[in-house]
């Protein structure tokens, strides 16, 4: 069976990582446009670097939970494409062999000048040079508002080719991910949502499992054996 899974902030929240909440316009007490947009980075790169330095520190201290581990187990038993909106590396540390980070990763840095990527140091600043071109143009390798998510060709192909699509811990508020269930369903996939509560796109799913991801995901994975 070919399975495509999308994970969102809800799966990492149980590991202690704060969820992104667009509804109140704040993220960790900062305005979203100040820390998650190219314009915000141009206005105050020091603030943006400090913000992501803190996110990187928090992610490094967090540990994978039972949901992350269950998905790693699933990858060993089925043809799984794992897509995440999260920028932490908890899936990888749980043992998932191939994770598509559509919104980028805290683990890498990106040169805004030449496009080079490299492992991000724990602390970055506007004075961090690119190791390829030496430009002082380092930024977090994060997809901000107004930017195109990564790996979309591979993601659309996985959605069109899967037998089962599951969304775990997602709000359904952010496109293009909010359209994944509808697209997979049109192509014939069975769609299931695992979430604490209804999302903005719950109507697009055939089945729903409610509860914390660390409890629902292991049970769901076991049912697929």
Coarse shape: globular
Give the low-pLDDT segments: none
Q: Major sheet: size, sense and barrel closure?
A: 6 strands, parallel
The CATH architecture of the largest domain can be named as: 3-Layer(aba) Sandwich
> What's the overall average pLDDT, rounded?
94
Output the radius of gyration.
Answer: 18 Å
Helices and strands, in order, run as EHEEHHHHEHEEEEHEHEEH
Q: Number of folding domains?
A: 2
Fraction of helical residues: 25-40%
Can you count the helices? 9
| Arrangement of strands in the largest sheet | 5-4-1-9-10-11
**End-to-end CA span:** 11 Å
Oligomeric state as shown: single chain
Would you give an account of this structure?
The protein has a 6-stranded parallel sheet with strand order 5-4-1-9-10-11, with helices on both faces. Strands 7-6-8 form a 3-stranded antiparallel sheet. It is built from 9 helices and 11 strands. Helix 5 packs parallel to helix 9 and helix 7 packs across helix 8 (180-186). By secondary structure, the protein is α/β, with parallel strands linked by helices. It has helices spanning 9-13, 32-35, 38-43, 45-61, 66-75, 90-94, 152-161, 180-186, 213-223; strands at 2-7, 26-27, 30-31, 79-84, 99-101, 104-111, 117-119, 138-142, 164-168, 190-195, 207-210. It is globular. The protein has 2 domains: 1-17 and 64-103 and 148-225, TPP-binding domain (Rossmann fold); 18-61 and 105-142, SIR2/SIRT2 'Small Domain' (2-Layer Sandwich). The longest helix has 17 residues, at 45-61.
